[in-house]
Amino acid sequence: MQSFNPPVRTLMGPGPSDIHPRVLSALARPTIGHLDPEFIRMMDETKELLKYAFQTTNELTMPVSAPGSAGMETCFVNLVEPGDKVIVCINGVFGNRMKENIERFGGEAIVVADDWGTAVTPEKVEAACQANPDAKIVAFVHAETSTGACSDVAAICQIAQKHDCLTIVDAVTSLGGIELKVDEWGVDAIYSGTQKCLSCVPGLSPISFNEKALEKVKNRSSKVPSWFLDLNLVLGYWGGGAKRAYHHTAPVNALYGLHESLLMLKEEGIENAWKRHADMHQQLKTGLEKMGIKFVVDEASRLPQLNSVWIPQGVDDAKIRSTLLNEYNLEIGAGLGDFAGKVWRIGLMGDTARKEKVLFCLAALNEVLP
Ligand code: PLP
């Protein structure tokens, strides 16, 4: 055996996305202790930078030491108590995963279903809230990575608030790529991932809880049924203040990477990052449409960072993707679930949302398509 040296790819799938050299070099800095005062200083800065990314002043804003799925579980395991009714919107793979979480933690899932490739319909959420006045939570995905559809966070949160429900929002694919305003839109609990529009390594999950959500966690009548994800315990380490206690060994170097990628987002300015993603989407769209390739999602609810397109008729899905990978070092995403074999997912996330990469992808597709 030898050291592992991965090929240098251009990552234009559903994540992970390309990582900027500044972030890669941050990962290689010397490891220090997770209770070292210098490390704690960096943790505090990371929390501030995450607040900026989420557009929130929530004190409880921190990265969970595990991938996006753990951020999802952190929200559900802390906020759902046995017997709680939770309205969950399903318009793709990740809404389904939320339902799994609700049921595993003893909640009752009330499903609001929308077709794959469409946004969650706020009127259906309103109807579900009216039909279930005892519901405690409304949960939904902002940016459905399996389809490329974007849902209206502000509208759904407003409905949930009117019916006295907390909201849990999946922002794994949205954070840093499209407009997201946690405080202004009234989101109560939210989670994301670092490997999409933040262009950092996979394996960390930023979360943010407002006071109302934290109150629910603190006043549970039963213990949180996960030791590792119990926020009452995690906050002894991440909560701030002079006294930090060991909870688990933080992924020190991965957090250097997150600090660097968030710093880059701050330097660029979040509105500029949102605009860059939108502009790159326009460029990709123009090129794909010239090739006769059609989008799955209507323009009004289309995500710029996750472009789902119908595979042209007669084209061999697996062969094209493997040719792109092997001959061009270019990864594009396959369809997931109901869309497997029918759809490609072209990601323009974070550092991948650059003009030279869009043009490269268009040129490569042009060459390999029959
Ligand atoms: N939610 C959404 C919308 C996602 O796209 C993903 C991953 O692609 C996840 C949750 C799970 O994140 P992870 O794969 O980092 O566990």
Automatic annotation (TrEMBL):
Chain residues that bind substrate: 345
| Cofactor dependency | pyridoxal 5'-phosphate
Provide a GO biological process annotation: glycine biosynthetic process, by transamination of glyoxylate
Look up keyword Transferase and say if it applies: yes
Q: What's the superkingdom here?
A: Bacteria
List residues of the Aminotransferase class V domain: 31-335
Q: Name one GO molecular function term.
A: L-serine-pyruvate transaminase activity
Listed A to Z, the keywords are: Aminotransferase, Pyridoxal phosphate, Transferase
Keyword DNA repair among record annotations: no
Q: Which residues carry this modification: N6-(pyridoxal phosphate)lysine?
A: 196
| Family note | Belongs to the class-V pyridoxal-phosphate-dependent aminotransferase family.
Q: What is this protein called?
A: Alanine--glyoxylate aminotransferase family protein
Native organism: Thiomicrorhabdus sediminis
Species lineage, top-down?
Bacteria, Pseudomonadati, Pseudomonadota, Gammaproteobacteria, Thiotrichales
